[in-house]
Each structure stands twice: as C-alpha cells, then as structure tokens.
What we know:
Layout: E1 5-9, E2 15-19, H1 22-26, E3 35-39, H2 45-54, E4 58-61, H3 65-80, H4 89-92, E5 104-106, H5 116-127, E6 135-139, H6 142-154, E7 161-165, H7 174-185, E8 188-194, E9 197-202, H8 221-229
Parallel strand pairs: 3-4, 3-6, 4-5, 6-7
Antiparallel strand pairs: 1-2, 7-9, 8-9
Amino acid sequence: MENLLExxxxxxxxxxxxxxxxxxxxxxxxxxxxxxxxxESASPMVELHLSETLGCxxxxxxxxxxxxxxxxxxxxxxxxxxxxxxxxPFAKQALRKWVLPTSICxxxxxxxxxxxKSTVQSICTGTGVDERIDILKIDxxxxxxxxxxxxxxxxxxxxxxxxxxxxxSPDSTLETTLLAGHLQNxxxxxxxxxxxxxxxxxxxxxxxEMCSWETSEVPNPLVAKFMEMGHVKxxxxx
Length: 238
C-alpha cells in the first residue's frame, strides 16, 4: 500500500497522505471531478496538488471572509505567476503549482451546513454532471467536522476519497470515536494517516446492513452477527 501513496507537506512538521496514482481513480471524470474542501486549511498545497493532478476545480467552502481572501490572493498569484512583497506566505505556495485561476472556486457567504445539498446541486449543475461528491477534504473543529460529515452522509453523498484533518485524535473523545467508528462502519476504510491528517477510501461495504436492528434477543445485533460468522460462542447470550 505504501507504494500507492505519497505525502504532501502542509507545514514544516506535518504532511498529508494522498494517493500517488490519483489520476487512475478519476481518469474517466478528469476535469469534471467534483472536489470539495470544507473548512480552513493551514496550507493550500493539498487542494492545489489535487487540482493540478486532475485538472479539476476545487470548491472551497469556508465560513469566514478572511480565508476566502487568502484564496482570492492565490487566484491572483496563479494568474500573474508572480509574488510581491505584500503577497502572504500562504499565497506564495501557489507558485509551485500549475493550476488555472478559474479552477479556484470560493463559495460566497453566507454558507452553512444546512445548505450543503443545494450547494452541491449548484456545483454539479454548473459542471454538467450528475449530483455527487468525488473527493471531500475537511479541516474544521471537531464540532464542525461532525456537523459537516453527518449532513453530507445524510443526503446520500459518498465521496470516493475522504481526507480529514482531525482537530484531535479520533480516539481522544466520545464525539470523535463515534464519528470515526461510524465512517468505518458505513464503508470508509482508513488507508493512511500522518499526525492528525487521515486518508480514507470508500469501499461500499456497509456493516450496518449485515444484521437486523429490530431484534431484542441480543444487546448488539452487529456483534452477534460477527460472532455467528466466526462460529464463536456469543458472550452476549450467556
């Protein structure tokens, strides 16, 4: 698996794992790949790398004008291929990538998770494709992470690649363990992680569908199903 991965530096001490053969995943979609980035990344390099590799637009969904202005500055740098003394370190990183300025799409405020479906519908209509999310990257607080992911999953979107910067480790709190566990149970396999940067791939294997949730004979039907499949004596029935 390591041969299929590479890491994109996002700071002096952190990097983000990505698939090395990303084009193989989305060759049939190419520049019509629907790539959403929610939140406020400390570095633009992952977004720029994916956009450069696939030739697709990156749709940035942020709740602050300050972050939007950072990406507006990146657009200017990509257009002129020059930086000035006033150019921020954030925007100067764009000089290392060849991305069309028009590939940077900053969603206008006001924007909220309650309007995520209409936002995605608008993006897909403008791209001329069926309603979907192909790649999703999220970098928010734990509260916003849960809100955004549950909203997206609720509307039936299943991005093929999911990239998350966890504010804290998935094992650190009840909130994060619930969310991380739910992701893997509905078919998102953890491929790699670097610090708090996690890369998931959708396998379309929903463990919740393996059992009935209408039985009262066992405390946890899924555990009971696993025990049955493994022909192991189920302690819940004792």
